[in-house]
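Cross-check.
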Amino acid sequence: MSHACHHHHHQPSPGNTPAYRRVLWAALVINAAMAVIEISAGWRAGSLALWADALDFVGDAANYGASLAVLSAGLLWRARLAWLKGSAMAIFGVGVLARAAWAALHGEPPQAATMGIVGTLALLANVGVAVMLYAWREGDANMRAVWLCSRNDALGNVAVVAAAGAVALTGQAWPDLVVAVVMASLALHSSRDVLRQARAEIRAAA
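Predicted model, tokenized:
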């Protein structure tokens, strides 16, 4: 649940090696797959926390793709990619908050079992990515930020699992809504930072 992860990819990385590229591609695929899984499971289980966590996976997948592009692309194209990513994060974040507001009035408790299972799977995915990136944790700022991002995102998964337990214990929807609102709010904060930096870099590179 670390919102500081989403603006690191503008710095060039010296890690332009086949091994590092393979790890970044694996991280991208894992995060994209988990985003799809959590969006689908969130819909079936009625869990906004899973949707919000999916937003984080979407942002991370874009980060890994951008990190790959950083190894060879110019500043203007990286900035344009960042602007698109920031816009998508903002749209999804607003959507989650709007859906949370509706659910607070009309929603039913989500399926705690599905939340717990998928949240645990997401935690394992983030830990696995962090382990893969561990060898590059002391690289340049971009490489270190990529590793820290995956490590810190596990906190979001822990929050989802905790919310699932609270939903199971209370039979109420509010734990799911609280986690969703916090995570979506952090995503919106990240989106603002990404868009601000992207606009500045687009102007500088134009």
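The radius of gyration is 17 Å. Residues 3-205 form one domain. Passed to J.P. for a second look.
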